[in-house]
Amino acid sequence: MDDLITRDGQMQWGGLLLGETTSYVGVQLSGWDDLPDIENGTVAMPTQHGAWPGPLLAGTRSLTWDFRILPARRQDFPSSWTSSAGSPAFARRNSPLWSNSPAPAG
Question: Do 32 and 15 contact (CB within 8 A), yes or no?
Fold first, then answer.
């Protein structure tokens, strides 16, 4: 879950903490304000006109977070990159992203 998050402006992806007070500084978050597609569960009636109404459920929403790696010391950059690239979070796809932040002002 979100056991690494300690303040607003942080996100957790797998076991990697991103955002405020980390070496991973956010530049832009896209997709947060976009509404997901609606998945319509309506089923056509096979022997008559019309359809049985189904539930309207929100589809998936894709977020894109552009960031910069800015370690506290310049000489720490190679180890910061190596540790993030080797993180289990980068090995998974479609894993949950936990956030403690309100929606960004648009």
Answer: no
